[in-house]
Amino acid sequence: MTRGESSENQPLPDPVVPPLDDNRRLVELIAEVMQQPDEVIGRQLWDEEHDLGRYHREDFARHGLTPHVWDDKFERYYRELSVWLTSYAVWNRRPEKLKMRAWIGEYLARQSNGGLRVLTVGDGAGFDSLYLAQCGHQVSYWELSERAVAFAKRIFRLADQPVRVIGDTSELQFESYDVVVCLDVLEHVPDPPPFVQQLAGYLRPGGLFVTHAPFFFVTEHCPTHLRANRKYSGEIRHLYGAAGLRPVAGRFFWTPLVLQKTPVEESGSIRPPRFPIALRLGGWLLSVARFWPWPHERMAIRARGQVNPRWREGLEQYARP
Predict the structure, then answer these.
(1) How far apart are CA 88 and CA 75, in angstroms?
(2) What are the structural domains of the chain?
(3) Are 199 and 227 in contact (CB under 8 A)?
(4) How far apart are CA 244 and CA 234, in angstroms?
């Protein structure tokens, strides 16, 4: 099967979901949610294209929070945060993020001829959820940030995609999903293992857990990445294995990693999925970052800084004088 085609030879949608491909519309929608003039949002978007995370870092400092150290104030900060919308948009059209989104779409297309029941966790502005819905899956979206939820609802409606927005965990049923997608979330969580166990509980036996978690990336660029979580870089047994999840697929540096909820055979014994050698090697290299993160951080900074000049078109009018 060629890249970008489903198991039925139907082309998958473009990972640059709307309104990521239209700066004018993107500015209008973010301005509407944030109740700010277009000029303010346009400048933020322009600045973020040149320095991804700039407004997040400034806002974090204004709240007096300590970078990389969990604080009980974080949950409120995540709920009320508004400046992330422009950084969400910029990250979600960076080449590396687009590769991840397309890879996930292609991988899931190979798993089923029909739509899968997918839960996205912490998808921010909803771009991954929208893409997976366009791929034909039944998508439920669960996010903490109130502004992000408001934005996501708008893009789901404008794209005419019936994504279910989860308002409370009480709406999530045990073993009711085929796939849980959790990208760039776990590195922010104060205690990842029980959170992974919670998410695994929503998967049916044999279901798939798709994740990307750059635990090693504890730099000034991402002040909410927790230093205490660096120990999980390249880790499988205690983080995922304890939740009954075993790696089955992924890109080399786990961008992303796919794990399967271990099914039980009729005999009652556990049937462990195959762990590809390439993923073992990638995990070993990631584990080095627990002690020496510098090379990994440099690669991550480079990936974040890769810019398609197309996304700056139409934003020049907002550039600082």
Answers:
(1) 18
(2) 23-318 (3.40.50.150)
(3) no
(4) 17
